[in-house]
Design goal:
By secondary structure, the protein is α/β, with parallel strands linked by helices. The chain has a single domain, classed as Aminopeptidase, CATH 3.40.630. The chain contains nine helices and six strands; from the N terminus they run H-H-E-H-H-E-H-E-E-H-H-E-E-H-H. It has a six-stranded mixed beta sheet, with helices on both faces. Helix 2 packs across helix 7 (182-214).
């Protein structure tokens, strides 16, 4: 900041340094801002020596929180059982590629607050966070998968209602910015959040067509809402509603290993394209 003279306004000056394309690609996913914001919650030693990308799969609900019970009337299943079964199969497919290390936020029937789920992604230096859910609707004829990304303003009324249901578990994840002024904190958060939202949207754009090839999806398969579990700030994140447990066809398919594998392979193809287009594989 250069103070103005002779009554002229102050000037904000930026110096740009030319670097190679390879150096740019290496650093674009890890801006200096990120290190300042999440240094207190990340553990660098957890990154695999193999250089594999880290994906955190988050099976929604669990423990005393069964999620939606729309499938109970259809075939006796609750959302928490569908999501853990699907996540285990998706994990197996992603790891079988040899390119990814996959971490489950829960690998058994336990309850986790939304804050804890986000922090698992932080602490493991996640490159992607994918929350797995199964939807419910008042009309049993509605079926198909939907992909959600984070936004403060929902894309439609249905997305807003869904976010309100999912967010009631607890509060959003926080980060430690002690030592910075309010203005600096807000700027850092907004910069990182915007970059993360951009990357999240890029991944969702890769995933939507791949998912459409694998299973039935909603006509408007890409939507957005203020999901608390996606407010991890610095980890690109999406929430996948695999289908509707209130629909007989979806409910039946969502408990089948074959369906989970189809979803897993779609996620794998989309993930490969996402990293190839946006980052350089190690």
């Amino acid at each position: 900041m250069i103070k103005g003279k002779g009554g002229k306004p102050n000037r904000l000056v930026f110096d740009f340094e030319k670097i190679s394309q390879a150096a740019f690609a290496r650093n674009i996913s890890k801006p200096a801002v990120r290190a300042q914001v999440v240094n207190s919650t990340r553990i660098p030693a957890t990154r695999p020596a193999s250089g594999k990308k880290i994906i955190v799969l988050d099976p929604g609900h669990g423990g005393h929180d069964p999620g939606n019970l729309g499938g109970v009337k259809v075939n006796g299943i609750s959302e928490k059982n569908v999501t853990i079964s699907a996540a285990r199969n998706i994990k197996r497919i992603l790891e079988a590629s040899g390119r990814y290390k996959v971490i489950l936020t829960r690998d058994r029937d336990i309850f986790l607050k939304l804050r804890e789920r986000s922090l698992i992604a932080h602490r493991n230096n996640a490159d992607l966070f994918i929350s797995i859910h199964a939807d419910a609707f008042r009309s049993s004829s509605v079926r198909g998968a939907t992909i959600y990304t984070l936004t403060e303003k929902a894309s439609d009324k249905e997305a807003a209602m869904l976010a309100a249901r999912e967010n009631k578990a607890d509060i959003i994840a926080g980060v430690d910015l002690i030592g910075e002024t309010d203005i600096v904190q807000n700027i850092l958060i907004e910069l990182v959040k915007q970059e993360t939202m951009n990357l999240s949207n890029r991944f969702a754009s890769e995933l939507a067509p791949e998912l459409r090839k694998a299973i039935v999806v909603r006509k408007r398969s890409l939507r957005s809402a203020a999901f608390a579990v996606l407010k991890g700030i610095d980890v690109p994140s999406v929430l996948i509603e695999m289908g509707y447990l209130t629909n007989q066809k979806d409910a039946k398919l969502l408990m089948q290993k074959e369906t989970h594998e189809k979803i897993g392979r779609a996620i794998l193809r989309a993930t490969d394209k996402y990293f190839q287009k946006n980052f350089a594989f190690n």
